[in-house]
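User: Quick sanity check before I run a bigger batch. Here is a single chain. Can you write out its predicted 3D structure?
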Amino acid sequence: MTALVTPHKRPRKAALASWIGSALEYYDFAVFGTAAALVLNRIFFPEDSDAAGILKSMMVLGVAYVVRPFGAMLMGPLGDRFGRRFVLMLTLFMMGGATFAIGCLPTYDQVGLLAPALLVLCRVFQGLSASGEQASAISMSLEHAHDHQRAFTTSWTLHGTQFGSLLATAVFLPFAALPEEDLLTWGWRVPFWLSAFVLVAAWLIRRRLEEAPSFVETQVQQVVDPARRKAPLTLVFTRHKRAVAVVAVCAMVNTVNMVFTTFSISFATKGHGIDSGAMLWVPIASNGLSLLAIPLWAMLADRVGRKPIFATGALVAGGLMFPYLHAITSGNVLLVFVFGVLMHGAFYSMANGIWPSFYAEMFPTRVRVTGLALGTQIGFALSGGIAPAAATALAGDDFGNWVGPAAFTLGMAALACLFALTARETGKLSLAEVDRVQEH
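Assistant: Done. Predicted structure follows.
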């Protein structure tokens, strides 16, 4: 019993386990997003026009985001009941298995409508998996972190997402350069199959990870005091509704990321004739900068607080979508690089690197995974599920309108900024103080 109630904090191990799992999750999501913009419309929706096929691909991309709130209601309580590690292992194999399966799917020419139906099914499993993966990883790393480094330690979860996105784009780059026949027959499949290597690495790291002291203590308290055994989902809906709403709206800052990583590629290549290889280098450069920026912004947030860093990053990143999309329409590849890297790599990283600690500290330990999962996944569903399709629709059939998608992105980012400013600043509190404040 003593070993259970007095475990040691292991911030580095928890950060590494969170990093590798997030890398796998976002490798899988980014591979699909890149494939949806460049290839999948021709393989799974070949009878449609380019614009209609891309729109349907964006809608399939959004399916994983639409199901994520339902996954949060399933995975979140599992993480608070049975432990963060349990959910981290479960979601690891759900995500990796679904991604590998996408690479094995038959095409529309082979099986007709069954092909896009199977594609949607795989996206559903990816969405359900992602619902618990990130919330459990963030909660685990937050609870293992030293109090003066919580933003920094949890930021490695998002550092992993940027690495996964970078890796996915880099892996897809040589296959995008293949002759069209090779790309459409076998080339697009290989990046999905390669996710198996990341899955094995994540499993080897996570299988020996221990639960954090604060979670173990909470579990012991629930054994001693039956009054504390209320279902996590019930507690969240009755006592933490406002925090869920704030997190959900703040999480819509993800619109910047979705428009940048998915919509803008098809907008540039299909609508304005920019080479796909050149466009794929933009997120590579941006994610490369993010790998440096995220931990640095997080270190600053540990000193000055979460709210000013998050709010500034969200608003500036949203505003920079205007010159970025305008540069695409003008065909100026240099400016596309400059504004893309500034918007996503520098300023979006401010919000992206801070939100793990910012959102997670809005909930006490006993409902942290449930509240964090539900809030973030509602926000991701609204942004990720709607943003690529909405931006595509606003751009028009000829992809001639860049103002509409840019204004939509800024509006969502400004809304996230506004709600962030209404939240409690928890940067200077200890985790024990956070628990006491959020429990009452």
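The two ends are 29 Å apart (CA to CA).

User: Great, the batch can go ahead then.
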